[in-house]
Amino acid sequence: MFMRIDKLQAELPKPKKADPNAAAALQELLGGKFGEMSTLNNYMYQSFNFRNKSKVMPFYSLVASITAEELGHVELVANGITMLANGPTPDKDHKGDISKSPFEDMKDIRSAASFLHAGGGAMPVDSNGLPWNGTFVFSTGNLVLDLLHNFFLECGARMHKLRVYETLSDPTGREVCGYLLVRGSVHAHAYALALKKLTGVEMEKMLPTPNIDLSKIPESQKYLDEGSHRRLYTWGEETYREMAAVWGGGEQALPGDPPGELEVVSGHPDGGKIDELVGASSAFTTDYDPNEIFEIASKLHSKL
Using alpha carbons only, what angle is made at residue 9 by residues 264 and 70, rounded to the nearest 5 degrees? Predict the structure, then answer.
């Protein structure tokens, strides 16, 4: 089972302005082939289908704990998208009068569906609006093959994050990319070390792929400085500490990153607050006046 915490893994700065087209670019990191929905579902179904896990617990613990982190990555990217895509706030000028075409600009945005279907929210699609596809899930039951695929998936995800980062100028989207570049590097490194333990092949020598030093990404620097590139979290029970047999034991950070020994940390990172989206009555989000909803909620609470 999973436990939910009302925080994001990293705190996102507010956008300078609404930018639905930037949000559309960020959708690639959510619902694209190498997006967070793909990493989550690949690792989740591998953990569900894992064979003989009691005999190879360090490898199961690795995949299972990264699964839990990926749930938070989906949440992080989705919040970044909604912050950027929230669109104009016409209520100030039109005071809820929908006959004044308060959302006229939205018809020409790159992903009109994000407004027309989701009211300016995240959707399980890529940057072109194509739905995320369950056929992206790779779960064979063969441990080496699955880990090799995971290594490839994290390298592909790094490529996409770097390219999306270069299309963005707003601090919100760049913060999402900067954080995920560090954590994705951790996951690629972890799967490389797992493959080395199983096969003797030093996969970590291929990293980073693509070969760019994260110190060149200003939004990644603070996470490197605090040692995030050296940590994996259990996200729950101490059972998952067994992955220290892979992520630990004297293994060191990748060359080019700040030096130090890899470590498993019990629990989860502190994280940051989730930004609260405001309503827009012209878009019927939320349909009721907030005071009416509060009154309804108070009545419901009194009946408990």
Answer: 70
pLDDT tens profile 123-167: 999 999 999 999 999 999 999 999 999 999 999 999 999 999 999
pTM of the model: 0.91
Identify the helix (H) or strand (E) that includes residue 264: strand 263-265
Contact 207, 189 (CB under 8 A): yes
**Distance (Å, whole) CA 51 – CA 54:** 9
Determine contact, residues 77/122, Cβ cutoff 8 Å.
Answer: yes
* Structure tokens belonging to residue 85: 């895509």
Residue with tokens 């199961």: 60
Q: Tabulate helix, strand, coil % of the chain (nearest 5).
A: 55, 5, 40
Q: Provide the sign of the torsion angle of the four alpha carbons 286, 291, 293, 294, taken in this order.
A: positive
d(CA 139, CA 165): 29
Residue 15 DSSP code: P
CA 151, CA 42: separation in Å to the nearest integer?
12
Q: How far is CA 78 from CA 25, 72, 141, 246, 286, in A?
A: 12, 10, 30, 31, 19
